[in-house]
Design a protein that fits this description.
The complex is a heterodimer of chains A (259) and B (407).
Chain A (H helix, E strand, L loop, with lengths): L1 E5 L4 E7 L3 E8 L7 H13 L9 E4 L11 E2 L2 H12 L5 E5 L4 E6 L5 E6 L8 H11 L3 H7 L14 H13 L4 H23 L5 E4 L6 H11 L3 E2 L7 H18 L1
Parallel strand pairs in A: 1-4, 4-5, 6-9, 9-10
Antiparallel strand pairs in A: 1-2, 2-3, 6-7, 7-8
Helix pairs in contact in A: 2-8, 3-5, 3-6, 4-6, 6-7
Chain B lengths: L9 H21 L5 E3 L5 H7 L3 E2 L1 H10 L3 H10 L8 H12 L12 E5 L6 H12 L3 E4 L11 H22 L5 H23 L11 H12 L4 H20 L10 E6 L7 H10 L2 E6 L1 H4 L7 H7 L9 H14 L4 E7 L3 H18 L3 E6 L9 H24 L1
Parallel strand pairs in B: 1-2, 1-3, 3-4, 5-6, 5-7, 7-8
Classes of the chains: A alpha/beta (259), B alpha/beta (407).
């Protein structure tokens, strides 16, 4: 099975066998409308040592889901993230998915079905795009930004929820001599607070699992844990959750039809 | 009347009534009569009894947006110096008052303004601004927000005093005379219209619903502009008959299989009406509950109840009562989910929307989804975000149905 998650800023692909194991995967840092989806599929198939012809089923999700001609099944990314997260972390009840352009809190039913969800409003505040913009201003890469908060000594605030306004805030803090590590912590907290707001609106039941590209951002994960005072679980493969979910949902469908 | 075959379908009659109301206002203007711009939930019994022609800026703005002029008119208002954070209906209204014409839809310019803040408190500022810009009188009926249901005696007296004062001022302004007998007649017709409207809307409780829920967005225009006319009462009665007939024959104006039934909360995205509707239709989702049934029917048996009825408008009523109406509708009309439009223009509606969503989800036991949009400014709506949210809702509704079927 091939699951492809065509996001706004990245394309993710997994090759799975019998809904049980991942045998190939790839993440390409460009999303819908680019060569990203095709490259992600090619790389994941190569990783698995297989070709498209070996696939029994191909399923797509994410913003670009309706553009993939190979896809025999298309699912909403919300259901896919719930399903994928459940596979990565069985027993999960709440998922916080923060991607490139949106953030969502999902309640997950036993078995991995989507129970309900709330999503961010239209702007990109509190999403991966926000972190990318901030990393650029600080002139560091995202990986460095995700660790820099650990060195923070002083608490500063980024109060604006608007990416553009927050950008000016960070620039003015930099010009005042605020240390990048303190700003990194503030940026992580800003994203974390938006995510926590969604979780509170949804109603949070533990355990909480994080998916999406921002799940790899340690600073944000730590800030959410500090704010909610509960552990936030994640997984190295959390960015693949949507693609895994798509593959599994397609697998469910074909096995159900086969029954 | 046994002329089912010859008579025009109710939806055509309703459209003609709405068009005629505007046409009548144009003709009155040409005759030299004074024409008003009037808020949608202003007590129409006053203007209808006095025979004063009025048109409705909210309906006008919705019409302009539905025909594709929303963004242009909003941008024009912004170029005049109005903030894009203002309500898009008000921006279209300001632009129209300045431009005096609009290729999508024209209404006569006003000689006076009739505002009633039961539908929107910010509307007072919109109308005050028009009054200053156009240098014309503004009459306001202030209806205080309810903090308990039903409306209390003090509020009724307060509204009644303004009602009487407004009549006196309009008599002075237009030279027309109040006639108690005509008032009684208008009240009776309005009741007939309101009951017929509610009856027609209520047929959505049948499965499948005999009509597409989006029809309500079009038909409700007449409930706003001509509730006190016999033509409107008859057309609504015919609409109810047609829906009843559809139920008997198992047909519907919703031209797709009704796989899912939803409650739609909020004003339509007029500028994106086609996309928002077709997305639902393609997924087999019919709207079988909206707040517009009760919102534009004003039921009363005496004068005090008439005053009270105008405080039962959605944005004036107490939250718990509004919630109860929606929960009841969701259950009675057997909805599988609810779609909430968080309308950038409407500060009042947005103020309670997330809480309404949360409580409806819990009390009616249905999945809900919120999408961003606007009543008339298409720049605030994203097709991809709407589709993602609706598809996810479908996946939950589908799963719920499967679980229900297994039980």
């Amino acid at each position: 099975m091939l699951g492809v998650d065509i996001g706004s800023t990245t394309s993710k692909c997994v090759v799975m066998r019998d809904g049980a194991e991942i045998i190939g995967s790839a993440v390409i840092p460009v999303g819908t409308g680019t060569s990203g989806p095709a490259r992600a599929m090619e790389a994941a198939l190569k990783d698995a040592g297989l070709t498209q012809a070996d696939m029994d089923v191909t399923a797509a999700t994410g913003y670009g889901r309706n553009t993939l001609s190979e896809a025999g099944h298309v699912f909403s990314e919300l259901s896919c993230h719930a399903r994928g997260a459940y596979w990565l972390f069985p027993g999960v009840r709440t998922v916080l998915d923060i991607g490139g352009q949106d953030a969502k809190a999902l309640s997950v039913l036993p078995g991995g079905k989507l129970g309900g969800f709330v999503m961010n409003d239209k702007c990109a505040a509190g999403t991966g795009r926000f972190l990318e913009v901030m990393a650029r201003i600080l002139d560091i890469d995202l990986d460095t930004l995700s660790r820099l908060d650990l060195e923070s000594q002083e608490c500063v605030e980024i109060s604006s929820t608007c990416t553009v306004f927050a950008e000016s805030e960070v620039i003015s803090q930099l010009s005042k001599g605020t240390k990048p590590e303190d700003l990194a912590a503030a940026i992580s907290r800003a994203v974390a607070f938006r995510g926590c707001g969604l979780l509170r609106r949804l109603g949070l039941t533990e355990p909480l699992f994080m998916t999406g590209g921002v799940a790899r951002h340690g600073g944000v994960v730590r800030a959410i844990e500090a704010e909610l005072k509960i552990p936030v679980h994640t997984d190295q493969r959390a960015q693949l959750a949507g693609a895994i979910g798509a593959a599994l949902m397609a697998y469910d469908k074909i096995t159900r039809e086969g029954e | 009347m046994d002329d089912h075959i010859e008579r025009k379908p109710a939806k055509i009659r309703l459209r003609e009534i709405a068009e005629k109301a505007t046409q009548d206002a144009w003709e009155a203007k040409l005759r030299g009569e004074k024409v008003g711009w009037c808020a949608s939930n202003f007590p129409q019994e006053i203007t209808t009894t006095l025979g004063i022609p009025v048109v409705f800026p909210e309906n006008h703005a919705a019409g302009v947006a539905a025909k594709g002029g929303g963004q242009r008119m909003c941008e024009y208002a912004e170029s005049m110096g109005y903030s894009s954070d203002l309500c898009s209906y008000s921006r279209i209204s300001f632009a129209y008052a300045a431009l005096k014409e609009c290729p999508e839809l024209n209404i006569p310019q006003p000689d006076f303004l009739l505002c009633c803040n039961n539908i929107c408190n910010c509307m007072i500022k919109w109308y005050e601004n028009l009054a200053v810009e156009l240098d014309i009188p503004l009459l306001l009926i202030d209806i205080p927000h309810l903090d308990a249901f039903p409306c209390d005696e003090d509020r009724i007296r307060y509204i009644r005093a303004q009602f009487d004062d407004c009549i006196r001022k309009l008599e002075e302004l237009t030279g027309k005379k109040w006639d108690e007998e005509r008032f009684k007649e208008v009240m009776a017709i309005s009741q007939r219209s309101s009951r017929a409207w509610l009856k027609a809307v209520s047929y959505a409780q049948y499965t499948p619903s005999p009509y597409s829920g989006f029809d309500i967005f079009n038909n409700m225009a007449v409930a706003v502009v001509a509730r006190g006319t016999v033509e409107a009462a008859e057309a609504f009665e015919q609409l109810a008959e047609e829906y009843e007939e559809n139920v008997k024959n198992g047909v519907s104006t919703f031209k797709a299989e009704e796989k899912y039934r939803v409650l739609f909360e909020g004003i339509a995205c007029w500028a994106n009406l086609s996309y928002t509707f077709k997305t639902l239709k393609n997924l087999g989702i019919n709207v079988t509950a909206t707040v517009y049934g009760p919102a534009f029917s004003f039921l009363y048996d005496n004068l005090d109840e008439l005053m009270a009825a105008y405080s039962y408008v959605p944005n004036c009523n107490v939250f718990e009562r509004e919630l109860e109406l929606r929960v009841n509708d969701a259950i009675r009309h057997k909805v599988d989910g609810a779609i909430f439009h968080i309308n950038r223009s409407c500060k009042h509606w947005s103020g309670t929307l997330y809480e309404m969503e949360r409580q409806l989800r819990e009390k009616a036991g249905i999945p809900t989804v919120v999408f961003d949009g606007d009543q008339a400014d298409p720049r605030v709506f994203s097709e991809a975000q709407y589709l993602t949210r609706i598809e996810a809702l479908v996946e939950i509704m589908e799963e719920n149905k499967r679980k229900g079927a297994r039980k």
